[in-house]
Design brief:
The complex is a heterodimer of chains A (181) and B (55). Chain A is an alpha+beta fold and 181 residues long. Chain A has one domain: 6 Propeller (Neuraminidase). Chain A is built from two helices and twelve strands, in the order ββαββββββββββα. In chain A, a hairpin with a 5-residue loop joins strand 5 and strand 6. By secondary structure, chain B is an all-beta fold. The radius of gyration of chain B is 12 Å and the shape is elongated. The two termini of chain B are 15 Å apart. Classes of the chains: A alpha+beta (181), B mainly beta (55). At the A-B interface, strand 1, helix 1, strand 3, strand 4 and strand 5 of A face strand 2, strand 3 and strand 4 of B.
Chain lengths: 181, 55
Amino acid sequence: MLSFAPKMPIQHYSNKCSHHLIFCRDFRTLVESGDHSGSLLRYDPSTNQTTVLLSNLAVPTGVAISRDGSFALVSEFLSFKVWKVWLKGPRANSSELFMLLAGRPNNIKRNSRGQFWISGNSFLGRLGSPRRTTLPAGVRVTENRLILQIVSLPAESYKMLDQVNLYLLKATTKYCTFEIP
Amino acid sequence: MLIMDYLWLVPMDGKATQLVGPAQVNSTVFADGLDVDPNTGIVYFTIASAKFQLK
């Protein structure tokens, strides 16, 4: 779910409770699907037009715009990749690999310093195994891909989503949210 | 705000605007990421999958 208030100080959030449920229910199917039907879209309120910027994405779960608005980062949950998509200038609408992660990237948030928090999960154990463990983490990077910080979370805490969110609000920054599949 | 068959933009003081509907996507959309350019007000958002749906 999405909502934001354009006339107010810009704010938006994703309601990850419902998000959480879909991934719980269909997670294995989704991961094994090799799905490439995701897309990045742009909505211009002045023209009321929605356009597709990128398509054939492997479950793009997060997007964050750079501080100057020149590019966006888009995470692909299935491919472990974060793409840099140029929004302005001669390279507009072209993309390049920004980062290949060890885990599955989910949401991306920009902080007030123009850095990005990329949340994601690594896993220990095979898919479907009862011993499989999720290792949720957040990575803070600069616009130039420099990794500044990696925050790991206790693996057991991901089961308690509200507590995870609460923990992150306190422990990292309010710009970072973590979602656990 | 409500994602079932459409994705809506809901200003605090105005009426909802349909961002995505049958014109753009044939099936139910699974919208996920969203960010707004604070300088232009342009909204960027992702549809995670056209095949997998929110339930």
